[in-house]
Each structure stands twice: as structure tokens, then as C-alpha cells.
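Hello, quick one for you while I still have it in my head. A protein chain has come my way and I'm curious about its shape. Can you walk me through what the C-alpha cells say about the fold? No rush at all, and the record is pasted right below.
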Amino acid sequence: MEMEAKIFFGSLEETRDEVVKRESPYDGRVVSSAPVCGAKDAKKALQIAKEAAKEAKKTSLSQRCEWVLDVAKKLEENKEDIARTITDEVGKPIAFSRVEVERCIETLTLSAEFARTMHGETIATDATRSGKKTTAFFVREPVGVVVAITPFNFPLNLVAHKLAPALVSGNAVVLKPTPEAPLTAYKFAKLFIQSEYAIKDALSVVYGDAEVGSALVASDIPRVISFTGSVPVGNIITKSAGIKKVSLELGGNAATFIDESADLDKAAQRCAFGAFINAGQVCISLQRIYVHKNVYEAFAQKLAMETKKLKVGSPYDEDTFIGPLINEDAAQRAYNWVQSAIDEGARAMLEPKKEGRVFFPAVMADVTDDMAIVCEEVFAPIVSLVKVESFDEAVEKMNDSPYGLQFSIFTDSLENTKRAISDFEAGGVVVNDIPTLRFDIQPYGGVKLSGVGREGPKFAIEEFTEIKSVVIC
């Protein structure tokens, strides 16, 4: 298996003697490595992108669409290898790694489809008294250079959500992928760069942490910074980016309300899925469940039973649902979260258990609003149940968070459904399913500290283009 990722300065592939090795989160094997990069590399990549953007803008939309679709085709042909690479690097169960590859193919395809339908509009300039009749319209143009910074939890599809819309729009991109999955990003980028439809030098890939990221963000060259990651880093980016567009998909503290009219069996089964998929390492992982007092204990017992059915163990087993957390610190932090909640009076529906980097799912009942386990993003397989007197109380508690990415409600009440859509302070609302539900075709993003801007191919294309207004008198 190929182990070494390489730097892409446009179409130029470069190796380095000094590398950082990546160990499997599951068994500690060295599974990949990446060259050590610094600010100098970031600046070089940006300069290449600056020149490439001039040519990218001139290319036909048909070529750019063929480029993205060609990558989708090549990914289809290599999907098992890519899925295995994801599992090696981040410990995602192989079944879900395959799902991520399939979703990535959809993201690429949707980006090409939406690019073909994105267009400007004519404007009636004589619609106001101060105007006069002209030929007026606006068009969308590429912004130029996009910097894309991506996280570990979806190391393929979240890269696609930035690369595909940006490149199909006629931009050049500098990608800084997560340090946890350099080989996944390298293999994906290579499909773009080696495509027969590729725009020369339109994509560069550099690796690293703060030094590289700071150089990319602070530069005057990029017009858009697209970042998915933590709130603290998002805050730093906002302060250092200067005058440019910043699209941030940050943290979440996803919540749902279980109404007394809900189908408890369905709700328990779906909540177990939403809380523990990808070991809870999802921005919209279900973390808080507010349950009407009349069905609280019944639901808690059903959720515990559903959780017990989930297989925990090797990410290479076909039926594993929960694999390891990304590193030992994350696993220990999860264990500490649970123990702290127990010390504060919460009730563990399942015995807390940790084996190396694998943390077994935790269902915490009798959680109160002042416990840290519901106030902050845990990013681990932990879900908390809070008893509420009414839907009004649930809305108040769900909204009492600095985050607002996605919320949901399980109910048979049309009135509560309409109120949830109106009153939930979140970028997305799901009715009768988990807030972890996301379709790649939809707009995706949050309010408050959960970020600014929207992803999803159509909406990302809007982020990566600018409007030019034209008047012909």
C-alpha cells in the first residue's frame, strides 16, 4: 500500500526527506506519512494559485464540469482503496468509509450539475422612477484563489465539498488537509491533478498545522477562506484573514426533542444512530436529547437497549458501528466527561468503558442544564437525556447554547412541528428524525458560534463566485 503523501505545487509533485508519520487510531500501526511543510511552502502554493486562477477563469464551463465528473468516475473505480485509506488513517468503520466515498461521488456530480445551471439575471432598471430603460444584467465570476482547510472526521467528502464547487466555478485552490489523513487527501487530489481535463496548476496541496494555516489565511492572495473545524481556530481565522470572504463551518451541540406523541421505538433507534455514528465525531452528532416527562423513563430504557445492539470494535470488521476515537487524548477526555457527569449526579444507563482509543457509547440520564456534558461540544460517543415539562421548556433549553447547527423534533403534533421550524435557533431543522441527518444536496451551516456561510454544492458555488453587474445604455 502506498504510504507517503506528497506536496502538490500545482501539477508539480514534490517529496521531502523530513516527514510526519501517521499512526492508525485503532492499533498504532504507521499507515501513512506526509512531508513537513512550513510558511514558505504555503506562500509558494499561493503564488502558483494566483497565476493559475487567471487561466482557470478563461476555461470553458464544459471543461470544468468534465474535470469534476472525471474525478468522480476515477473515484468510483478506486473506491475500495480510498475507503481503506480513510479507515487506516482516522479509524472510521469500513462500512461508513465506503458510505463516505459514495457521498463524495455524489458531491462531485452535484457540483457539476449545479455549475451548469448557475446563471445571472436580467434586471429591469426602469422599474423605479429614478431609473431608465437599459439592458442590464448580472453574471457570476470566480473569486480567484480559494484556501480550503479541512478536518479529520470526513477527510474525503468534506474536501470534496470545497474542492469541487471551487474548481468547477473557475477558481484555483490551495488545500490544507487535516494532518490526521494526509494520504486520503493526496490520493483524492491526485485524481484531480492527473485528470485529462485538469486545469494546469489550479490545485495545490500543502500539509501542516498552525504555521501553514496562518500563512495561508493572512495572505492577500486568496479571496475566500473556507474552513471546517473548531470554534477557537475559526475565531483566529476571522481575526487574521483581513478583507476577504470567510466561510466557517464550526462546532455544534446538536439537540432533539422527544414529544410525548412521538413514536418512541423509532426515536430510540434513530437517536442511537445519530449519537454514536463515527464515534460521535460529527459536528451534528446528537448530543442533547430533551424528553417530555411523560415518556422520559420509557424512552431512556429504549435508547439504552438500542445502544447495546451497536457493535464496538475493529473498524475493519464489516459490522462494526463504533470504532476508535481519533487519538488517546480524545478517548480519555470522553471518559472524563462521563465520570464528571456521574460525580455531578447523572445516571449512566450503560457502564462507562474504555479500551485504548475505543470508548464505548455512553447514555447519560438525569442530566441537568448546569453540567458541562451538555454545555460544551463533546465530540465523542456520549449522549445526554434531560427531562422537560413541555415543548416550550425544550425550545428554551435547546436554544440556550452558543451553538446552532442542527436541531430536530420527534412528534405527531403539527403545531409543534410548525413551532419547531420557527423557534429553533439553528441552521437546519429536521422533523421526525435525528439532527445528524444531512443530505449533500442541501444547504449546510449554522448560526451563532456554529459558523457563517453555507456548504452544499449549489450554495458553495455561490460562496466561491462574485456578482458582476452590467449595464448597457
Observations:
- The first helix runs from residue 39 to 58.
- The radius of gyration is 23 Å.
- The chain has 15 helices and 24 strands.
